[in-house]
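Re-run requested by the PI after the first attempt was lost when the workstation crashed. Everything re-entered from the original request form. Ligand of interest: S-adenosylmethionine.
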Amino acid sequence: APGLTLVSTPIGNARDITLRALDVLAAADVLVAEDTRSLKRLMEIHGIGLGSRPCLSYHEHNGAKMRPRIMAELEAGRSVVYCSEAGTPLISDPGFDLVRAAREAGHAVTAAPGASAAVTGLTLSGLPSDRFLFAGFLPNAKGARDKALAELREVPATLIFYESPKRLGATLAAAARVLGDRPATMARELTKRFEEVRTGTLESLAAEYAGAPPKGEVVLLVGRGRSADVSEEEIDQALDEALEEMSV
Ligand code: SAM
């Protein structure tokens, strides 16, 4: 069908792609990818030929230049697929301005949904999943990072971050300092051979990874602050205990 389809690709295991996504990739008139090489490799794994179809690159640095070209394909009534390098497009990946432009021009926009590291990490973390805030990558600069963390302090939800392994230790330490010592989970290499999920607190994980960065790709998940986590009964019990101590 004419229009733009956002196709989710695997976050590691090449088989984590839906049957529908493969159908859409096989049928599209025009393929657009953040990384054309990884899309071609994925299609090859699944036996989908490119044929004579155009495979255009669309990424952070050429988006403004490429958008008119892609819009022209949509104007011409073609079916266009967009994939980011891994996982769900637009999730800490480019594409939202393409979606906006396509919508504003009245084209059909739909998705073939699939894997995302944020949701996979959340489901494995053991942290409350009823409310979560996806915070993407923190800024690199320390001041900006700490400010971004401080803005999240009062958010009553599990926080999800993407982080590079080499910054993980410093980020954990900063998060412990700014957010307080909260339950936390480090989820690494999800769906891949060396998948690992470590639970602890921000301080315990900070100690574990200080100067010892893990290998691969990392999602960091942080439980909500204590006030939101403590039940009324626990508060009553803590009050009783405190009163008892005072009367001794
Ligand atoms: N669009 C992707 C998604 O839906 O998850 C995310 C793209 S973002 C540029 C890449 C970051 O996602 C990595 O630095 C890492 O934090 C996280 N990530 C991607 N794949 C992962 C995996 N298999 N295990 C853990 N984290 C992963």
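Saved to the shared folder this time. The mean pLDDT is 95.
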